Amino acid sequence: MAKSMKPFSSSLLVCPKCSSAVTSASEGMACRACSWSPEIIDGIVDLREDKTFDTLLDVNAYDEAHNIQAQTAALANVYERILREKGCASVANVFEIGAGSGNLTHGLLNSPFFCEIHTSDISLNFMKLLKKRVGAHSPDKLSCYLLNANNNPFRTASFDLVLGHSILHHLEQFETTLEESFRVTKPGGFCVFGEPVLDVHVFSGLIASIILHMEQARGTLDRPRRMALTALANRPQIKRDHLESDRTDLREIEDKFIFPINYMRELSSSIGFKSFDCTSFDSQLSLGEHTLRLIKHVFNQIKTNADFLSDYAFLFEKLTVNYGEPMKMNDITPFSYFVFSK
Predict the structure, then answer these.
(1) Cβ neighbours of 144 (radius 10 Å)
(2) Does domain 59-195 have CATH number 3.40.50.150?
(3) What is the pTM of this model?
(4) Within its chain, how far is the Cα of 35 from the centroid?
(5) Ramachandran region of residue 100, left (φ > 0), alpha (ψ -120 to 50) or beta?
(6) Which of 26, 120, 186, 282 has the greatest number of CB atoms lying within 10 Å of its CB?
(7) Is 177 exposed, middle or buried (0-12, 13-18, 19+ CB in 10 A)?
């Protein structure tokens, strides 16, 4: 077990007890000053203060429910493309937050663009699944940690890149996560997070509300259809309210937020990032088509037929022409990438 640890795995760590350097040796890892040492579980360094806290996600069913396997090959390429457009020829070291089952991690390991990968999650079960998935692939390139992203044990200015894919909207205090990400990023480095954005979801709520009222007027609205349309209509306001509420109430909610782009831009500036961009990729859909796809997705999740939406094709077409084109929103996707430059 100890032999799997590499010198660079601990060179970035500071002791949570006394803030001294943590070093690795053949027998494991330890603080030079106070002899504190973390538990190492199957090659995963456990740096959690609260070992009872875990993910709300269904670890065993997560990959299938989110079509993870189909995304693996392309996902790391998206992050590479973002960074190349920012002028990066390669990234020396990466800190990945909320790695889950290793969907993005696997791609990062396969890419020569990313050199050292320091991947993390709060869940031991997810990290064990990640280790099983990546196996012995690139053992000299990967270090695995269990930690709380809001209180991570890395030195200030340790990483060229901090990233997370679909993680911030699960975290009740995601602003602290971004502050910590800023702290451990080197000057000139980047933090990149793929997240759901509110701009497109607002329109799905608007169209769902219109359809709900029209269906009620027709007298053809059954209970599953009513519940789905009501949830869609209310979702943007509920998610926005989450941002402004007492977030202790959100601890048992999996998907807590959809992020307004302007809110994230203002947050970026307040934390101290030099610049902020929201980037969308490979969109060949109009605003109306994106909105239709979002609504259909909810109906598919509850296994309810959405064929009736064809009766409302004119609404999605009007949305594209009246809002998408003049507001230049046809290139914004429901899931986009926040790029913070330090």
Answers:
(1) 27
(2) yes
(3) 0.89
(4) 35
(5) left
(6) 120
(7) buried
Q: Are 4 and 43 in contact (CB under 8 A)?
A: yes
Q: Alpha carbon of 304 to those of 28, 169, 275, 291, 294: distances in Å?
A: 53, 26, 43, 17, 14
Phi, psi of 48 (to 5 degrees): -75, 140
Quote the tokens at residue 81.
């493309």
Q: What tens digit of pLDDT does each residue of 271-305 get?
A: 999 999 999 886 788 999 999 999 999 999 889 99
Which token pair is 109? 């390991």
Instruction: Tell me the pLDDT band of 29, cut-offs 50, 70 and 90.
Output: confident
- Please provide the DSSP assignment of 283-307 as one string: ----HHHHHHHHHHHHHHHTT---G
Q: What is the DSSP letter of 116?
A: E
Token reading at 275: 């610049």
Smallest CA-to-CA distance from 13 within 35, 29, 33, 2 is with 29
Please report, for the chain, the start and end positions of each structural domain, with discontinuous segments joined by +: 2-38, 59-195, 198-267+274-341
Q: How far apart are CA 189 and CA 308, in angstroms?
A: 48
User: How many CB atoms lie under 10 A from the CB of residue 204?
Assistant: 23
